[in-house]
Amino acid sequence: MKATGFAARTADGPLAPFEFERRAPRQNDVVIDIEYCGVCHTDLHLARNHFGFTTYPIVPGHEIIGRVREVGSGVARFKAGDWVGVGCMVDSCRHCQPCHRGWEQDCVEGPTFSYASTDRQDGSVTYGGYSDSIVVREEFVLAVPDGLDPAGAAPLLCAGVTTWSPLHRWKVGKDSKVAVVGLGGLGHMALKLAKALGADVTLFTRSAGKEVDAYRLGADHVVLSTDQAQMKAVGGQFDVIIDTVPYDHDVNPYMPTLTLQGVLVLVGYMGPLGTPVNAGGVVHGRRAISGSFIGGIPETQEMLDFCGRHGVVSDVEIIPIQEINQAYERLAKGDVKYRFVIDMVTLKA
Fold first, then answer.
1. 340 & 265 share domain
2. Is the separation of the CB atoms in 89 and 134 below 8 Å?
């Protein structure tokens, strides 16, 4: 099936128009015409080969919103014209323990990602959402609730579920006190979702001047984490801290702000921590450091349904596909509030 998109062909070259073949639809597949696609920092990392394993050409994009064009004979949940979403995964083994528990992101055999991955049946390369269409097996297609802004919903497929999953796991609700470290694409979604769940929400930031945005996005309080007096004042307060910082940083200053049996959850950084964690800050108070990686398909659908009921979407800047290289430059500088989303109609230009 012929498709058109934008691809990176080298680590240092621009993304440019690219024609390629999508795999032929199977009986359990959904063919989707893509209307919006979010731009995630992972897209930038993989396009620029920051992890060292990118194979070119690569078509990024895993925050996909579109309409169903057609479905295979075995598809029961969707029909032509439905608003649907596709996130970071398009398949998994579906028989290991994590898959059976709805944690396909932790598939023992490894999930098939939306791009830069390998189809489990025919070995073809997967291409992402910076394109006009995509073919995905039914089980990995999400229903987008009626009334949810499709452009603002696109980042929910990655940034949304990445922050929803730990909030859900640690049972955040109206009696919870939650803190969020960092105010970027992930951080702003963590604020919105925690507030919608009814929690009392605090933003930790190293930079003054974030208050106006933080309060608008759902924070009840803002704490400057470089101010020792402010940090001491919130000692022992938080049940859950969602740490969205995407680079190596010292987590020790946040540990004393947790309650008895509180947990700090890393969602933004997956490398080694340069500053060793002080075990005393964990042992005293029965505190924990945990981690969370995106989210499974069932909880992604649960998150979308919740956002539909509460009107939660990402704050986005909509761009034409022709500006993707400038968007990458701005993304690298942190110059976006809070997520770029590509209007894929512009691909026709």
1. no
2. no
For the chain, how many structural domains are there in total? Answer: 2
pTM for the predicted model, two decimal places: 0.96
Radius of gyration of the chain (CA): 20
Other C-beta atoms closer than 10 Å to the C-beta of 218 total 21
Give me the CATH number covering residue 343.
3.90.180.10
List b or e across 335-345, with b for residues whose CB sees 16 or more CB atoms inside 10 angstroms: ebebbbbbebe
- Spatial CB neighbours of 324, under 8 Å, sequence gap ≥ 6: 6, 15, 39, 130, 342
Q: Is the domain of 166 the same as that of 153?
A: no
For 213, the enclosing helix (H) or strand (E) is: helix 211-217
Main-chain phi, psi angles of 151, to 5 degrees: -65, -45
Is the dihedral angle over the CA atoms 64, 67, 70, 72 positive or is it negative?
positive
**Unique residue bearing structure tokens 């964990």:** 282
Which residue segment(s) compose the domain that 283 sits in? 160-291
Residue 171 and residue 93 share a domain: no
Amino acid found at 339: R
The phi and psi torsions of 49 (rounded to 5 degrees) equal: 55, 40
Assess whether 8 and 150 both reside in one domain: yes
Per-residue pLDDT reduced to its tens digit, 159-192: 999 999 999 999 999 999 999 999 999 999 999 9
Give the model confidence (pLDDT) of 183-233 as tens digits: 999 999 999 999 999 999 999 999 888 999 999 999 999 999 999 999 999
Single out the residue of 343, 295, 335 nearest to residue 41, CA to CA.
335
CATH of the domain at 210: 3.40.50.720
Burial class from Cβ neighbours inside 10 Å (0-12, 13-18, 19+) for residue 348 reads exposed
Do 276 and 312 lie in one domain? The reply is no
CA–CA distance, 346 with 251 (Å, rounded to integer): 42
Rounded distance between C-alpha atoms, residue 346 and residue 142, angstroms: 24
